[in-house]
């Protein structure tokens, strides 16, 4: 209750300023909100959007925020689809408004020209639901109030009504879900208002029961006529029920369920049928009208999502968008709507990596850096948000929707573009200027798609490529893997990708994949990996530390020179804090009977079936190695090193080595 009271105070204060609340913008999937700058429409894109409608925008219009600019064009638009799509965008997120300016207005205008209606009916239903709700509450239904999103509409209405049931319902919905707000506008406000009206009637101690019954009937008639957006004046609410039915029939859309139901009720000579229609029948009929429109809209939305999915698959450069569309289609109406409202924009980010074609190296990504556009791995010890420089927003091509443009995720309206420096064609991230020349240079077409090899990106006659110096440039045909955004390309990741390169393909499951995120302990980093044949089980753990290379420790017996597990023994003895990180890969012993690994702390772990897996450390290890290690007369270690009075002892198959701490001497004691 305290939270609702606080919300009420905030709403009243803001309502006094007549400023609607601004909904939060969802963070695109996989991107760090603090690092990525949300896209906005550029001045050139606003000019192009305005020109679509034959509007010459003023300087003041061009300075408007994207959401305000949408409304500015909506006021001047005449096409049903343009106006409807603008209303749906305005009722959505800031990002939806931006995308409407960038491309939505153009496609909506094309539908108007072709007389193809997709959004008009859905926008009308949403608008009329708010209009009916406003009228029933006695709120002036200004056009711009009716196209606000549900939260902003309720926020504004809250400041203009006084009924306690209505205000409580609005507070609860504002603190609730999107579906609850939508239901409140469609039905809940009318019900709450009916409760407020009845409370006022019941509280009138001066009125007779007959007067209370008359007022209740008039209130019911008044609510009923608002379904067809008729203001319930005293002249109307005092009419007999059959005349009220005529008002509703006249105000209903021709051929609608409301009109049909009103006419059917009028044909009855039973007064109870008229009253039943006023009390409930009109709302049931209206819902059938709304349901029919929503069903048509849902069908059109699914077709649109399927088309987006198909185009993403065919395009070859938006695998995340294709997968997001597939997930939406596998869900229900709400999933499809959420995808169109926000999900399709969240899924536009991708990264581009070198692949194995022509000896290239995996884990090197197309990156926007302060020194230019390069193709290289990330930092060995990445900072938070690492990989944003290798993340691009893949949008429709500025020079044509059949191709693509790569927009920076940190600098809106900056694109990867070709330019001529006086000697040769280069590539850089540059701001869009709205010229045909820039749009052409910032557009890349996918020429070839090879599963397991990736795609080629061609700009004009040149292909986007990696030059010998590691910088991005143009040249001959070059293949890129299209991968997930915010790529992790630490030393461990690059080692994994290249070690399992024959199986690495971003379009399929990997033979070996990470089991969890990379772990950091000061200068040491490590990560567990799993095999596709045994998901959820650690196959090996790779270690890296500053100044060193990546080395794995296998879980289980391994494949080459199978023997007891090394990783478990290493962890049992304290892991990297005790032994240091591995400085060699696992290797077979000289007799091929077992395995061993050396560690930065000066120790080793040897593993063989007849003796188990044990560590040999420090001076004892040095003495044993000087004798020939496992080839010596001592053979393999049979136990971990232990403390003895005055030193340490290592036990082997055919003897032991004792280390004297005072003298620093390691002495061999062969078995008798």
Automatic annotation (TrEMBL):
Pfam families: AbfB, ALF, LGFP. Residues 1-18 form the signal peptide. The keyword Lyase does not apply. Keywords: Signal. The keyword Chloroplast does not apply. Residues 360-450 form the Alpha-L-arabinofuranosidase B arabinose-binding domain. GO terms for molecular function: alpha-L-arabinofuranosidase activity. One of its GO terms (biological process) is L-arabinose metabolic process. It comes from the Bacteria. This is LGFP repeat-containing protein. It comes from Amycolatopsis pretoriensis. The lineage of its organism: Bacteria, Bacillati, Actinomycetota, Actinomycetes, Pseudonocardiales.
